[in-house]
């Protein structure tokens, strides 16, 4: 017998990285919020790599922090080692990545949820969701029923999860957790377009069984940089990572056993990501490559488990042991957890709009892997968007829509809801056409005012932000008005940096414009320099050096915005518009773009179709 | 999509005709027309009501170009639904072109093909049936060409563009893989790799751009000036090329007092010829005006036919002409080869590569002249089956792509980081994608109307 257990403004199903951000944001905005998880010990779990950030993902974390999300702060609190990737490749692609203590991360997040006002954290599997009075009635496996005005589905790989290791296969969530087996059926019954994706993870190996003596060491940056604009400093790096390589023997073992791979044997139907292939995939697809790299990363400070980045697999456990043991340093390795592939149910994200609310199911939102993405950071970003919007809906406020020109988060959401995902979607810097604007260093400038307007950035933090903006303006002004006289020492520096000497005074700003020079090397000549935070100097220097490019991208943004002002109706049947190709009619009907700009990004809608739309819009002007 | 630009174009068929009509449309149409049109009764065009005509003169740079009738239409009662002025002048390529130029320099923008029709459509001057007809034309093309080019209908051109685009895409893909997977074992992208790819693309696009000028030369004709000392035989040459007597040919230097115009076909090349007054300063005021005009014309021309007299030694004026020849594509024509040689051809060859000997009087050497012209206009190397740029939009895309590639190279040489180089390369790629119709932008509709000649 079911029993009625309560009412919530916002209910979040799943307490992974998406669910956490959704629940915290909704509760902080004043909504009575519940977050359900199958196992309280799996809150904020990192079932794959023990790290947060990376290329483009680091951007997402910083943006989330600038908006008032939690991931960055918790990653800082649990950091083991931090590196800024892509130094030297340009500020647009600088990306922060931190190795973290995964148990500590999970505990920290769980504690934050527990302490959050307006939020109830519950261990319960949601087995049924049913529309009721404009909201949804959720039922747990313990037969409790909750009426929720809005619901965020953030089920990750738990939803219909099935694990594959060679010939072995069983229903399971990640890391040995129970899967959510009943909710899929209920969501399907509701009418959500579900499908199956797959992902995988490598083995965890006992640290004591690894011989590190001949392995290349990878150290963190000194000093390590934090994700959060509110974290003052991280202290010192606590661990090293190591690099090893596979060889001919590793490859041979894969080739000899490929028929035992569930993917190659055709037992897995889910679509896996191309950019994060299993090791056997790498061997089969790039057969001419003699060796592959792997990174050995510690899972925490108080564990001997080591993560084998780059070596995920769904081959049988015995084969795994064989091929891991061909690798230098792993000759006597002991596997603590085998690698596995996991297949799960997720939704076609084009069924949602940019608030991550389902178009056909008001007050129902989706986030994270459920939306077809991959990665903790992608999940957290969506969780934030979905949670904020669910709360704003309850509060009857305007929704939050982030855009391609203000954030990677906006780009991620727009890609998902406009282009859809044919494989688990991962963020990359190349997905952003405006990447010189959307840098990790200026996330606060781009998004903190928005976070403040929503109500997730404190007054104190906002005032600090405003002060920083003032300081930045003043510093740029100072650079423009300060002239440095030529001197032997300065010219010696210029020569050593392979840039031209000066004979007359030169403005500081003109020196900083030179790609060969930076703030650091000019310090001895810039005696009046104020003491400001490092990130501010970084922003100023980038803006000066890349001024022309930044302006150019801003112009491109304006062009796109023009297309986005041409609104399209969402209640129109595009089948009525003769002249559109069939594929375009179907895609437009499915996605119902809000404007020409969005329509032009839909794959399968050609420029000629856009012309037809423009003509039709013009012809119907005033109707 | 309707921009506020006032546009103008010749709206009668180009070529010989009784009357040439220049149509101006847009909010500034009447004001612009008023700047070039002087009403016989001094009433301003801006004071006229719609559906009225005025008789007067077209004035450019203070000079009278032609007599004309101006028809004023007030919005929305016009073909396009905007303010429209139609200037009807005497037909003929040269005069109509000159009047158009005057209108353009008075502030109008050149209309793209189909743009009047497009405006008519967008201003509701067509009903829905007509609109659907427009959509049908587009979608028919769309079906048949699948993803294909809206503007690059010529498959050969597409191939050439795609080659460049593919090479750039390969580089851009490498750059982004290298940036997005810093720890994967991906080959480093080096300055040399980018420079090589950029240089190749640069050369290809430059070659392609050159075809535009040649293609235009075929389509529209080249402004060609015949210049030389008085009585060197310019008018005879012009008559030789045009096939009939146009200039007044006498033995008295300075007989040709004005720029005389004609359009002739030399081989595959259309030449818009002007026979100039001799280049000499003179006390005769009337003749001096002719000389000044000739000089001006000379500086702006696309091809110079510099005529020298075989029977006479080089003089000051010839040296002036040789100096000019350094800045303009030039064919040196040694005329009067039937007379004994007094001319220092070696000196001429120091200035001009293309030298042709003719006797304008007998017609000897005419074929050599024509092939020299074709060579210079680039048309002898122009093989249409290789794909050429044939319209202004294609040219604009290629030239923007070229510009972006040059910027990418410059960024690299300045020592800027690869992220800046990458976004610039991507600009080049999207310009090329736009050409083959793979990117939607506000320009697309313009292109559709431009390429599908709907309406008039």
Major sheet: arrangement of strands of chain B:
3-4-5-6-2-1-7
Instruction: Give the mean pLDDT of chain B.
Output: 74
Beta-strand content of chain A: 15-25%
Give the rounded overall mean pLDDT of chain A: 93
Tally of contiguous helical segments of chain A:
20
Instruction: Supply the helix-strand structural class of chain A.
Output: alpha+beta
User: How many beta strands in the DSSP annotation of chain B?
Assistant: 13
Largest sheet of chain A: 7 strands, mixed
Q: CATH top level of the domain at 204-343 in chain A?
A: Mainly Beta
Helix tally of chain B equals 14
End-to-end separation of chain A in angstroms reads 55 Å
Write the CATH fold name of the largest domain in chain B: Rossmann fold
Helix content of chain B: 40-55%
The H-level CATH homologous superfamily of the largest domain in chain B, spelled out, is P-loop containing nucleotide triphosphate hydrolases
How would you characterize this protein structure?
The complex is a heterodimer of chains A (623) and B (456). Chain A has 20 helices and 22 strands. By secondary structure, chain A is α+β, with helices and mostly antiparallel strands. Among the domains of chain A are: 140 residues, Beta Barrel (Elongation Factor Tu (Ef-tu), domain 3); 86 residues, tRNA uridine 5-carboxymethylaminomethyl modification enzyme MnmG/GidA (Arc Repressor Mutant, subunit A); 55 residues, GidA associated domain, C-terminal subdomain (DNA polymerase, domain 1). In chain A, strands 1, 2, 6, 7, 8, 9 and 20 form a 7-stranded mixed beta sheet that branches. In chain A, helix 1 packs parallel to helix 9. The radius of gyration of chain A is 26 Å and the shape is globular. The mean pLDDT of chain A is 93. Chain B is α/β, with parallel strands linked by helices. Chain B folds into 3 domains: 119 residues, Probable tRNA modification gtpase trme, domain 1 (Gyrase A, domain 2); 143 residues, tRNA modification GTPase MnmE domain 2 (Four Helix Bundle (Hemerythrin (Met), subunit A)); 146 residues, P-loop containing nucleotide triphosphate hydrolases (Rossmann fold, 3-Layer(aba) Sandwich), CATH 3.40.50. Chain B has a 7-stranded mixed beta sheet with strand order 3-4-5-6-2-1-7, covered by helices on one side. In chain B, strands 9-10-8-11-12-13 form a 6-stranded mixed beta sheet, with helices on both faces. In chain B, strand 11, helix 9 and strand 12 form a beta-alpha-beta unit. The relative contact order of chain B is 0.12. The C terminus of chain B is likely disordered. Classes of the chains: A alpha+beta (623), B alpha/beta (456). At the A-B interface, helix 17, helix 19 and helix 20 of A face helix 4, helix 5, helix 13 and helix 14 of B.
């Amino acid at each position: 017998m079911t029993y009625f257990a309560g009412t919530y403004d916002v209910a979040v199903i799943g307490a992974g990285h998406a669910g956490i951000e959704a629940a915290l944001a909704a509760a902080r905005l004043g909504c009575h919020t519940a977050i359900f998880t199958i196992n309280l010990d799996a809150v904020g779990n990192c079932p794959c790599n023990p790290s947060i950030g990376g290329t483009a993902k680091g951007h997402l974390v910083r943006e989330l922090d600038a908006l008032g999300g939690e991931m960055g702060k918790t990653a800082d609190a649990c950091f083991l080692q931090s590196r800024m990737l892509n130094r030297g490749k340009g500020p647009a692609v600088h990306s922060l990545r931190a190795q973290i203590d995964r148990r500590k991360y999970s505990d920290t997040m769980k504690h934050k949820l527990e302490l959050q006002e307006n939020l109830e954290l519950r261990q319960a599997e949601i087995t049924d969701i049913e529309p009721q009075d404009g909201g949804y009635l959720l039922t747990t496996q313990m037969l409790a029923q909750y009426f929720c005005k809005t619901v965020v589905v953030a089920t990750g790989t738990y939803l219909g999860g099935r694990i594959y290791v060679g010939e072995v296969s069983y229903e399971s969530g990640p890391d040995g957790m129970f899967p959510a087996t009943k909710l899929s059926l209920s969501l399907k019954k509701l009418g959500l377009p579900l499908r199956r994706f797959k992902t995988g993870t490598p083995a965890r190996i006992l640290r004591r069984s690894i011989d590190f003596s001949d392995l290349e060491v990878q150290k963190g940056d000194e000093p390590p940089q934090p994700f959060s604009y509110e974290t003052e400093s991280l202290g010192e790096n606590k661990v090293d990572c190591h690099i090893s390589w596979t060889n001919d023997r590793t490859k041979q073992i894969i080739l000899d056993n490929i028929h035992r791979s569930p993917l190659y044997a055709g037992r897995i139907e889910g679509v896996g990501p191309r950019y994060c292939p299993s090791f056997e995939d790498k061997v089969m697809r790039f057969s001419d490559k003699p060796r592959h790299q792997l990174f050995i990363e510690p899972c925490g400070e108080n564990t001997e488990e080591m993560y084998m980045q780059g070596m995920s697999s769904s081959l049988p456990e015995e084969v795994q042991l064989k091929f891991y043991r061909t690798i230098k340093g792993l000759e006597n390795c002991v596997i603590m957890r085998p690698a596995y592939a996991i297949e799960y149910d997720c939704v076609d994200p084009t069924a949602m709009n940019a608030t991550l609310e389902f178009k056909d199911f008001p007050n129902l939102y989706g986030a994270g892997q459920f939306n077809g993405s991959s990665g903790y950071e992608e999940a957290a970003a969506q969780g934030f968007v979905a949670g904020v919007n669910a709360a704003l809906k309850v509060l009857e406020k305007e929704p939050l829509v982030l855009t391609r020109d203000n954030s990677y988060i906006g780009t991620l959401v727009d890609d998902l809801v406009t282009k859809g995902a044919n494989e688990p979607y991962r963020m990359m810097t190349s997905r952003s056409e405006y990447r010189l604007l959307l840098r990790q260093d200026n996330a606060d400038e781009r998004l903190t005012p928005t976070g403040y307007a929503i109500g997730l950035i404190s007054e104190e933090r906002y005032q600090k932000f405003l002060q920083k903006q003032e300081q930045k303006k003043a510093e740029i002004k100072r650079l423009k008005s300060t002239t440095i006289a030529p001197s032997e020492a300065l010219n010696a520096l210029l020569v050593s940096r392979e840039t031209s000497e000066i004979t007359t005074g030169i403005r500081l700003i003109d020196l900083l414009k030179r790609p060969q020079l930076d703030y650091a090397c000019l310090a001895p000549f810039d005696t009046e320099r104020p003491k400001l935070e490092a990130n501010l100097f970084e922003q100023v220097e980038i803006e000066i050096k890349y001024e022309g490019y930044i302006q150019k991208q801003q112009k491109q943004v304006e062009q796109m915005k023009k297309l986005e002002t041409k609104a399209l109706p969402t209640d129109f049947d595009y089948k009525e518009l003769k002249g559109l190709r069939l594929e375009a009619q179907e895609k437009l009907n499915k996605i119902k773009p809000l404007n020409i700009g969005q329509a032009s990004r839909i794959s399968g809608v050609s420029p000629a179709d856009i012309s037809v739309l423009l003509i039709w819009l013009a012809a119907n002007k005033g109707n | 999509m309707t921009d506020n630009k006032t546009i103008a174009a010749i709206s009668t068929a180009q070529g010989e005709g009784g009357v040439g009509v220049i149509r101006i449309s847009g909010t500034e149409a009447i004001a612009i027309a008023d700047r070039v049109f002087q009403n016989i009764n001094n009433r301003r065009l801006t004071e006229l009501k719609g559906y009225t005509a005025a008789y007067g003169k077209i004035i450019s740079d203070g000079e009278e170009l032609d007599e004309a009738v101006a028809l004023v239409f007030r919005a929305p009662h016009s073909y396009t639904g905007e303010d429209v002025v139609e200037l009807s002048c005497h037909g003929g390529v040269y005069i109509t072109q000159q009047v158009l130029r005057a209108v353009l320099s008075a502030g109008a923008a050149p209309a793209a093909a189909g743009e009047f029709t497009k405006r008519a459509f967008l201003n509701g001057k067509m009903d829905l049936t007509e609109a659907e007809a427009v959509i049908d034309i587009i979608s028919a093309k769309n079906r048949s060409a699948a993803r294909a080019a809206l503007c690059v209908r010529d498959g050969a051109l597409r191939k050439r563009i795609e080659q460049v685009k593919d090479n750039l895409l390969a580089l851009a893909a490498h750059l982004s893989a290298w940036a997005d997977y810093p720890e994967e074992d991906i080959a480093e992208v080096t300055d040399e790799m980018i420079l090589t790819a950029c240089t190749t693309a640069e050369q290809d696009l430059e070659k392609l751009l050159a075809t535009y000028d040649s293609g235009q030369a075929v389509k529209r004709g080249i402004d060609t000036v015949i210049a030389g000392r008085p009585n060197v035989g310019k008018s005879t040459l012009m008559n030789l090329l045009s096939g009939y007597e146009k200039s007044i040919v006498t033995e008295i230097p300075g007989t040709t007092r004005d720029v005389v115009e004609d359009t002739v076909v030399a081989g595959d090349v259309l030449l818009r010829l002007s026979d100039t007054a001799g280049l000499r300063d003179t006390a005769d005021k009337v003749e001096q005006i002719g000389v000044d005009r000739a000089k001006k014309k000379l500086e702006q021309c696309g091809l110079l036919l510099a005529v020298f007299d075989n029977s006479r030694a080089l003089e000051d004026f010839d040296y002036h002409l040789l100096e000019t020849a350094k800045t303009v594509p030039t064919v040196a024509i040694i005329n009067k080869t039937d007379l004994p040689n007094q001319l220092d051809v070696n000196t001429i060859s120091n200035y001009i590569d293309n030298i042709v000997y003719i006797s304008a009087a007998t017609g000897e050497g005419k074929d050599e002249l024509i092939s020299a012209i074709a060579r210079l206009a680039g048309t002898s190397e122009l093989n249409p089956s290789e794909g050429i740029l044939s319209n202004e939009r294609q040219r604009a895309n290629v030239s923007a792509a070229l510009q972006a590639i040059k910027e990418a190279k410059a960024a690299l040489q300045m020592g800027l980081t690869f992220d800046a180089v990458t976004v610039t390369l991507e600009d080049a790629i999207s310009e090329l994608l736009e050409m083959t119709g793979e990117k939607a932008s506000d320009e697309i509709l313009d292109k559709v109307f431009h390429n599908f000649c709907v309406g008039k």
